[in-house]
Amino acid sequence: MTPDRDIFRFPAEAYEVLRTLEAAGHEAYFVGGCVRDSVMGRPINDVDIATSARWEETASACQAAGMRAHETGVKHGTVTIVAGQHGFEVTTYRVDSATSADARHPDSVAFVSSIEEDLARRDFAMNAMAWHPERGLVDPHRGMGDIKAGVIRVVGDPARRFREDALRILRACRFASQLGFRIDDATYEAMLSQKHLLENVSTERVTHELDLMLLGAHVHDALMRTVDVVSFVLPELVAMKGCTQPTKYHCFDVLEHTAWAVQEARPTRLVRWAALCHDMGKPACRFLDADGVVHFYGHAAVGPGIARDMANRLLMSNAFKDGLCALVENHSDTVAATPRSVKRALAKLGGDVERLRSLLALKRADIRAHAPAYRSQTASIDDIERTLDAIVAEGEAFSVAQLAIGGRDVIATGVAEGPAVGAALQAALDAVIEGSVENERAQLLAFLGQPTTR
Length: 454
Ligand code: ATP
Ligand code: MG
Hints:
By secondary structure, the chain is α+β, with helices and mostly antiparallel strands. It contains 22 helices and 13 strands. Magnesium ion is lined by residues 33, 45-46.
């Protein structure tokens, strides 16, 4: 079953690279994710080419045709060919050796002569297809059938393939989230039995796969189905599973509520991670009162610590960690759609408008993951966002930096240099937000002159 060539919408330069290699006497195919995504009618990410040419041959043939070649991974046979505005990874047909000391990097690669041998080293059948504009589809592992059935299935023996490279375990989870596919039973069993090998995978790669998984369009289903695998790298999820919330607001346990919140969240990295972490404090805070009612008092205060430990372990940047913890800490704060309340919320987030927008996106997602009767409350978040828009448009003050006075003015009133200066400015900002003082120099100086303000 060879698909119609119209579905392969690669840039003209990609076809040019293929023609150039073949004119020089080599064989070349489009391969991997770009073939899968074309067949599925999804936008393609990058166009990869597999060829019988050695990397030096690829480079010289393409350079002779006026393209540029970068030695981006020549140890593994890869050169990046830049043609026009595009870059293409061109890799010599190869196989990886079967054993790997760290379950990630192949000990060695061997170059081979046929596309079929190259396809056999690839992770999943859906990723192990090659396509050529004249010769059509090469699909020895029935990838087309898997795509039609919506299945992720390892090429070859699953446990052996995960032992070769444990990163594939997380790739299966993230493809489930990106594509909405289910994982074949034998593949999933091997993911469970080999998940301990994720210990050997570099943290950067783990975090990257988790990022992609959380950003996927089918993340709820993927998280729920693979939680027992993903828990190896996100042990925080274990206590959330089965942590029931028998209150009128909820119809899911903490894990499933969380999975829905991630699914409903705006697909940006910060908001998706914040949705994953927002209720991580709940299992530790859960208690039943004398009437048998469940409470989670303080969970928003415990959550940031758990989220920060997780983010440290996953080597996330300090800026990202700060944003994540601020969102988790403030996710259940009450904000009203009044200018005063919104400015207070902004001030609490250091005047960071984008952070407040992310917090509102998190709150919206959280609400949508509640029991059906409560999901319409997102309207109140829309009201808050409109108030925020008006505050920003009118340039109203919600941070110390926007005040019409600065630290020097405070010191000139006789305040000693040091933390007292910041405290005085904060008091002035509070007064502006409360509406008792205008953000105007003379009024602010008069305010600072009042002994009661310091
Ligand atoms: P996307 O680029 O959309 O994330 P992709 O399938 O193109 O998805 P890449 O990481 O770009 O994924 O890899 C390109 C191809 O290389 C894959 O389609 C697959 O054939 C192969 N591949 C990538 N990583 C592995 C791996 N760890 N083990 C085996 N094959 C792999
Ligand atoms: Mg790719």
